[in-house]
Amino acid sequence: MRAPSLRGQVLGGLLIGALVTLSSRPALAWDPATTHSGLTERAISASKFHATLAGQLGRPLGAFEPLRLDADALGPDLARSFKSRLARFDPAGGYRPNADGVASASAWVRAGSVIEMTPPERGRHHFLEPRKRTGLDDGPGLSGMLHATRLTLDSGATVRESMTGVAFDIEGMPALDWVWSPRNELGLSAFFQSLQRAVSAPQATERETALVRALLALGATLAVLEDMGQPAFVRNDFRAEFLSDDAGSVFERFVADTYGAVALPSPTPKITRPDIDSFFMAADGKGLAQRTQQRFFSPGTLPPDTVYEAGEDIADLVRRLNQALSFPSPEVTTLDVRQPGRTGYMEHDGDRVLAYQRNGNKIHFFLDRTVYADCARHWLPQVEAYAAGLVDHLFRVRLAFSMEEKNVSIKAAGFAGQPEPGTTLHILAEDASGARKEIAQAPLQHGNAVTVALPAGMRKIAAYARGRDGGGAYVAVGEVTVP
Q: 14-21: long-range contacts at Cβ-Cβ below 8 A with a sequence spacing of 24 or more?
């Protein structure tokens, strides 16, 4: 037998070492089982989610309504995918459905935020550098091969897939492109389509499963937005954040260990934005990705260690450091390096965002638990506020029903600005067996009700409209029981 080449021996050794080193490293992004679940739970609790389900969708228990995911109604491919991913959940997390596929509405949203990171390479599409609107771009390197090898263990990718970059080539779509992508089975396209089917599908089982899928997609979209509050995701910092430690992100581990899923700080008041994209980034600079990037450092975007000569003017030192930064903000403002060995902190808007220490004539910059604590304590409530605002934005257009004798009138409200003309309101009736069929269509007009005659023997009237207004895409849905 021919002996392996030196290159083959080296690569083989690296592969074995990678398998040993990376086999226990968790997926990137906030810890799904604790942090994402907790952030999402607080967001939907602070939003109008409960009221929307109870008032618009005929689910009297709202967020606590038990809903069943039916594999036959979902389709075989998605059913197999979701079943295998949901089966990985720890039942103690409170979001894994029971053996019959039943969970509460809020649990399905939390499940979506967790399932978004299963398999873990989905996290490569959670990066967004808002100045350039680009995603993860790490470039070629040995660490990329090692990370791909880890995914061989985590997601079942073959070694060939990993080595050729099929499993994870350390590049990804920008987060905004990912949430809108038709390739994303848990993105906004799936949310809107499934929410429409939650009232329009002919059979009750189909409608309930469609609502579950819409809630899963809602949770997954919130998870992507929540990652915009993690500095590494908005500063294109993959290597230093996720590959420098055998257990992945030190910051994310700190947050998971400190708060778990139930002890996260409460959200600040909901943040309202003009459209979906602006929750991530916008021209006014107030998207979550922009605010996080401007406020916090990440391990790979720190000021470089620098030599400080005794007597050097601190202003000159600060100027030198700022010229070497990867991003224009946050800037180094002032330093106190008089006492060697002492850890000092630089603040930004009241948060300690940078630690530093002088040893001899060298100044070393780093992030520590004090910095992580300030970031988590003061920024996670902002992340929750953005997520709660997005929930309300997605459900902003409401349908109000009124019954009078043998007629039902339906009026749409909650538009962001004027709705685009040409949107159709579809009206459906449900018989005693639970089957629904469309009985009328009418142009949807802001402020004007559409009135139709009630068919005999119908027990429910439902309606939906899918269009655009000043806030972008929307799906308005509603149903009411006939007296």
A: 14/142, 14/145, 14/146, 15/149, 15/159, 18/145, 18/146, 18/149, 18/150, 19/149, 19/152, 19/153, 21/146, 21/246
